[in-house]
Automatic annotation (TrEMBL):
GO terms for molecular function: dioxygenase activity. It comes from the Bacteria. Keywords: Dioxygenase, Oxidoreductase. InterPro entries: Fosfomycin_Res_Enzymes (IPR051332), Glyas_Bleomycin-R_OHBP_Dase (IPR029068), Glyas_Fos-R_dOase_dom (IPR004360). This is Glyoxalase/Bleomycin resistance protein/Dioxygenase superfamily protein. Residues 3-112 form the Glyoxalase/fosfomycin resistance/dioxygenase domain.
Amino acid sequence: MNLNHINIVVQNVNKAVNLFTKHLGFSLIVNRNNKMAVLENDHNFALVVWGQELNHKENMPEYPENFHIGFYQNDEQAVWDIYEKLKTEADLQFESEPKKIRSTFGFYFFFEKLIIEISVNPFKDNIA
């Protein structure tokens, strides 16, 4: 069974599309009037970016505590490269520079209310 997609809710669909296409390896499949977009990466994983206005509610929903999405990189240098590029983007908040986290190396940042993790795959050497 393959995961079809994940849906994230954001205030600004265009800023999210820019982040995911410019820095995180996604390609835009469709952008529906800047209210909802579908992106895909090289691993056939789809990300649905849902604009808050489509919820017909005033406030952004809160993500559950510790909810985040993560992207594995091949090595520490790749993590540093993405970090340096992301630092040039306005409106992103960083928890810290890349560092040892749990049994890997990476960092977390916030896009609006969504936490995103960039790290080295801690399991890649243990996969048989």
